[in-house]
Amino acid sequence: MIKVIFVSADGSRRSVEIDEGLTAREAALFNNVPGIDGDCGGVCACATCHVHVDHAWINQVGLPEEGGMEDDLIQFAEGATETSRLACQIPMIPALDGLVLHLPKLQH
After folding, report:
1. What residues make up the domain containing 16?
2. Is residue 91 part of a domain?
3. How far apart are CA 79 and CA 81, in angstroms?
4. Does residue 83 lie within any of the structural domains?
């Protein structure tokens, strides 16, 4: 199991576990983490699983491919920053055990 820590906009932290090969979106949804909707079912079509990768983790997680679908969608996510990712596009691998993801104030 891989641990993911979700930090809400108010600073509260929620630690969850997910199997390798699933995504950060699934980690949030399967554990009822508020603030992640994932309306499109995880196919990178809506940006309702927008998260901010903690600065300490951005090199391990990486940035979205420039000009790719995720990059295009993030441009429309409210409050997007240089550490924005879509949780559906972050596969859970052992190297990400302990990953910290910050939730935006709003999710559309």
Report:
1. 2-96
2. yes
3. 6
4. yes
At 8-54, the pLDDT tens digits run 999 999 999 999 999 999 999 999 999 898 889 899 999 999 999 99
Long-range contacts of 14-21 (CB under 8 A, 24+ apart): 18/92, 19/92, 20/92, 20/93, 20/94, 21/91, 21/92
Q: Are 102 and 52 in contact (CB under 8 A)?
A: yes
SS3 94: helix
Q: What is the pLDDT of residues 66-95, one digit of tens each?
A: 999 999 999 888 899 999 999 999 999 999
CATH number at residue 69: 3.10.20.30
